[in-house]
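Q: How would the structure tokens look for this protein?
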Amino acid sequence: MRRGVGAWVGCAILLAGVTAAQAAGHELTDEELRIEMGSNRTLASYVLRNGPPDLAEASFLADRPPWDKYEVRLYYVDMRKEISFARAWILGEPQISMVRNERPLTDEEVADLQSRARSRGAYARGAARGGRMGPAERAEEAARRAEAAAGRVEAAADMAERAADRAEAIVAKMETSSPRSRSAK
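A: Here is the predicted structure in token form.
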């Protein structure tokens, strides 16, 4: 009898430890972040627009449905920003991707994140200046982001132009094949 109670208590402690570890979240590797970006369009567009984060982690969500089981948090140390993304379920599928929370980081959080990012080697952009980017590095990073954004805008404009050409061709075809155009001749 005592062994059975001891086994149950041991299982309960193990389960509590696993739940606590899930709730705290875990850091995402670059590959895991790419996988998350593949399933969350809002997250992917944010990272493409603002560049890769200094750190990313997945955290358990204790909310009720329709939210997914976890959220992805991105930390941008230089911008002093934390932003989290989650997916909502509609008709049994996690179809809606959205920004769940955005907040500024405190000084203590920035210091902790800088040390975590350095230990993992992810804070390479400003490592040469002791964790801070100088004006030249910030300008170069901003120029890279602006150039990437301009490329995306140009690609979107090309797609819109092709769609307009297709629409014009369809309208022209409809006009030539409609009964009104035949009777007018």
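The CA atoms of residues 37 and 109 lie 25 Å apart.

Residues 11-23, 122-131 have pLDDT under 50 and may be disordered.

Upvote if useful.
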